[in-house]
# Entry
Amino acid sequence: MPEDNMGQECGIAALLDIRGGFRMRSKQQIKAFIAGTLYFIMIPAATYLIFVCLRPASFLNYNSIRLIFEQSIYVCILAWGMIFSMKAGDNDLSLGAERILGCIIGILIAKEIKSFVGIPIGCIGVGIIVGGLKAFTNSAIKMTSIIFRIAYTLILSSAGAIIAGNKSLTLSSKYTILGKAPWCYVFFIVLGITLLVVEKYSVFSAHCKVLSGNEKLAKDSGISKEKTTAIAIMISSAYCAISGVIACSFGAGTASSTGLDSFKLVFPAMIAVHVGFALEKHINIVFGVFAGVMITNTISTGLISLGLASELKDTFMGFFLICLMITSVVTARHSEERARREVKAAGKKNIVNT
Amino acid sequence: MKKLISAALVVTMLAGSLVGCSKSAENTGSSAASEVAIEATSESTDSEAATKEATKEAVAWKVGLIDPGPYNATSGPLFAQLELTINALNGTFTYVTMESNSAEATINAVKNLIAADVDAIILSNQALKYGCMAEVADLCEESEVYWSMFWTKIVEGEPNYEACMNKKYFVSTTFEDDVESAYFCTSTLGKLGVKNICEIGFPSGNTTGDMRDAGINKALDEFGMKLLAAERDETVTRSAEGGAIAGSRFLSSYPEMDGIVVAGMSQYVLSGLVETLKSQKKGIDDIQVAAIDFHEFQKEYLEEGYLDAIIGGHIEGPTYSAILIANRINGTSLSEEPMLIQDNFIKLSSKEEAERWDEYVAEDGYIYSPEEIANCLVVNNPDFNLEVFQKMIDDYSLEDIVARR
# Structure
């Protein structure tokens, strides 16, 4: 969880500052903007550059970047949806099962009405119902526990399996329009901008930030944890639904899961959110999360391009995440130490002047 | 009030869990058989009546199965035929759901079936895949439950062979020539002039996967092709979305790739892979694809040119298991020793062949009719013996299915 969210005023996000327009307010802000932009571009670019050096024939072309980007879109949307709930202390692992259930119902509706429109109807319908139920339960019971998430996962997975029954969950090409360009790009841009605005300017987002820092302080300030978490759950369900629309259109089908198997769908998104948290000092988390998804997909594609066994992917990914977290913590400590020294020096100067 | 709501929610969730987790379908035919199969079965009321008449002397028995999940072009026809077979042999069936893909879940599923008082269990390759064959063998032996496997090869000298073959209640296992299946796919690409291929396959160490890799390597050597990369991560290779991701990764990593072998699980990944090829405007002339395991839209893909050959149709194994078990339960065992049966694949290389498969199997919903199955019980047909049974296995092909119809 981030300790400091001051960096949110920095980076490319500053370009979208509605209150300030496109006007930069100080030299410090320009500096922060450049630093944030560099962080946003440099970290995925550095990862990509490693593979460009190792296999230039594969990675030195626009098509590779586009393919990696397209397979990142639905993971990124799922991860974006999880930002607020994770900030509010709720790691909702049941989102994988919720997405699968939405895809199953969406595919069955699409086949029934013989139109791709059935997919968003099913996915968004499930998102509203399940998200609403989760939010209501959360508000009624006033407790966020992993046991609830496991219970939801079991219920949603078995519901998906029962509804799927013996029916086919494969789509023919005519139903997959929403997983392809330009629709997947439209979803990505609209949802990204919406989240950026909510994240930067809403009171709800500020409440989430306070909750992530000090729950007692949040309570004393009159922030309702239940209400904030309920909104966060609804947002994560909405983004999960759109992620499902793109995912099942992208792959032309889905598969039901049993037990807790659906957790594996959520982990890449959670990793991306943690990368976003790690970079939050420098860039807005919306960009940080996107960078996280791009990095993990670049590594996966890069390892395939090197001809390494795909089983090694997780080892490399784990190693990379450890390196990233260590770098992030060391950088944060270094900045804190520098700030402390500056304050101390300023204090001494004041005493001398006095 | 809030306590009341909380209590109501907890009760609802528990009830939901119980309903969801106890998904079993005892002899309803609703769990795994394809819809078409159910329709086909209901249409053949006369033949069922004849079958019931013929099987009046047969002992009633109950077999336990593991729920295969939603319909796909491999498991759908397989379980449709199996359910028809069990009914024709005067049996009933019950399904259990595995909680996860693991050895523990497999053992728990077997225990649950034994607790459901089954006389026999027919498993897929879970025991081999998750390394719990010896435990399953011991459980069935202790409980005096006959058991059999399909899609599972056990090799003499290996621990699994020793664990099963000296057991009284182990009836059989059926398997396919997986070296040949992968060789067929890869050599088809070789004949089309492909030089650089990528593979979507099973994880290393999996017996089926290792055999398929041997088949691929054989064709690579023969046609001077090169294997550029393989995607074996099961979190990728068991979903349509994973097929799309694997396709994207191959395309972005290897511009020189001109062929893809899907060495299994095509029923999941092929649609995603084809969608990626379509969206990248590739796949008809510049990238050739061959696959193992039948897919729902294989006819369309073969017609459009996104697929060049597919091998599958290995859905007969559990039917042979049921025939052996039913005869053993009726005291007319075809073999006193456990049987290792190699059955046949079906190869499709054109739209016309795929159409024949769809017409005779996918639409009708069976490969052997209820009458044919009823005649595989010695109490009904005293002429049925091991030799006739072996001929039935050896003859299995698309031509054989068409001819028998």
Chain B touches chain A through 68 residues (CB under 8 Å). The mean pLDDT of chain B is 86. Residues 218 and 317 of chain B are 26 Å apart (CA to CA).
